Amino acid sequence: MKKHQMILATLSLMAAASVSASEDAMEHNPIPHLDHVIVVMMENHAASEILGATDVNTPFINAYAKTVGQAANYWGVGHPSLTNYLEIVGGSNFGLTNDNWPNWVNGGCVDNNPAGSGCGGAYTAIDGPGTDFAFPATVDACVSPWFDQLGPLSQCATAGAGSAIVANNWGIVSYPAITYTPKTIAHQLADRGETWKSYQESLPTTGPRVDGVNYADGTYSSASPVAAWQINSSNVSVSKLYAVKHNPFVYFKDVQLGTKADLSLNQVVGFEGADGLYADLARGTVPTFSFVAPNQCHDMHGVGGYTAQCGNDAHALQMGDAALKTLVTAVKASPIWKEGKTALVIVWDENDYGNYANQVVALVDTNYSDVPVVSKRQYNHYSLTKTLEAALGLPCLNHACDSGTQLMSDLFAAH
Is the distance from CB of 257 to CB of 327 less than 8 angstroms? Predict the structure, then answer.
């Protein structure tokens, strides 16, 4: 497990230079209706690895964070990646507890890894109500050290700290199993006649709507084991830069089947091309809700335990930092940033799965407020779901409706 340290002096200066919103301010600054929401998902790093202590690897993020809203007490709900992605877009893990691939309704599971076993545990597409997976909290007691001077995150007490990692846990709030509504924000928008897209960098050219691709290197599709899994002289496979586990909408049967034109795999596109992210931004034609997943080198995840084509962890941080600079620059150059109300959210799914508190970075940038609010309120992915739904005029879904799930009003309000 990597070392996690926090430079409190740096964070204190950041806090002093920012605005810490009060409860009164939140009540008098409700969340405005948003015309566009863009959520960028980053991967597998705790807050202490991104802000302050590691700015040598993340200079853009550290500079950018001082100019936008920060949820400085923000938590992942559990592990692993897929569950957190589903929780952000749908307020539930929908009963899925790992990163297994979907069993495509019109093509079955596709596992082109010669040594793979992904199809052995492939998920049946979500269809109809069901029971989700309970997430017991494994952080016993922790007040965010970002502003409360408790020291490094490692001082937060965790159940079984130093022992084997507890699967699916490491959140700060316990969530009982519920009967979930099988919908996401995309479903809600489609029901209302509004638009959404899942922008997936390095999406294979054949796309998931054709061959049920699970992952590929962006050049070859995974329709062919030879193309997708070329082995070099060192017996290292080609990077799998696109990962279906980072594309939560395709785990739903109605999206796979595309029985509704505006709720189908046609809304899953890449970053490049005529209908890709950068073209949409340049034209100002991005949908109401954009879910943006950089590839596994650019989201800081890395491929092959950080040792394959993405390099080591420092390289993963540096590549993610550069990728975010490109994304933020493109968003702010888009016509949507100059008219109406738009929010750009950059959030990490979870820490690196170590035995310590699962606190991650969440940044909120809007085109209608230039006050860099720093919020000390405790939020998690369900808070983000609830807030995005409120901003888009949608009802809450699943755990976003829980009484303890707080709106991120201080970060989305017009200041």
Answer: no
Q: How far is CA 97 from CA 93, 133, 199, 318, in A?
A: 7, 7, 24, 30
DSSP SS3 for 377: coil
In a domain, 371, yes or no: yes
CB contact at 8 A, 196 and 289: yes
CA 70 – CA 94 distance, rounded (Å): 28
Structural domain boundaries, residue 50: 8-412
CATH of the domain at 72: 3.40.720.10
Backbone angles phi, psi at 357, to 5 degrees: -60, 135
Q: Report the number of distinct structural domains present in the chain.
A: 1
Provide the token pair at 88: 């952000």
Element housing 318 (H / E): helix 313-333
Residue 347 lies in a domain: yes
Phi-psi sector, 381: left (phi>0), alpha (psi -120 to 50), beta: alpha
In a domain, 220, yes or no: yes
Whether residue 3 lies inside any domain: the answer is no
The Cα 413–Cα 51 span in angstroms is 24
Q: What is the residue whose two structure tokens read 């940033």?
A: 337
Output the CA–CA distances (angstroms, integers) from residue 124 to 96, 128, 200, 276, 354, in the order listed: 10, 12, 22, 28, 29
- Which tens digit of pLDDT belongs to each residue from 280-330? 999 999 999 999 999 888 998 876 543 456 778 888 889 999 999 999 999
Query: How many angstroms separate the CA atoms of 281 and 245, rounded?
Result: 25
- Going by C-beta distance under 8 Å and a sequence separation of 6 or more, which residues neighbour residue 3? none
Residues 6+ positions from 84 with CB-CB distance below 8 Å: 76, 77, 78, 349, 350, 381
CB-CB contact of 213 with 221 (8 Å): yes
pLDDT in tens, 343-384: 999 999 887 755 456 788 999 999 999 889 999 999 999 999
Q: Are strands 289-293 and 242-243 parallel, antiparallel or unpaired?
A: unpaired
Question: How many Cα atoms within 13 Å fall on the side-chain side of residue 196?
Answer: 23
Angle at 299 between CA 161 and CA 80, to 5 degrees: 40
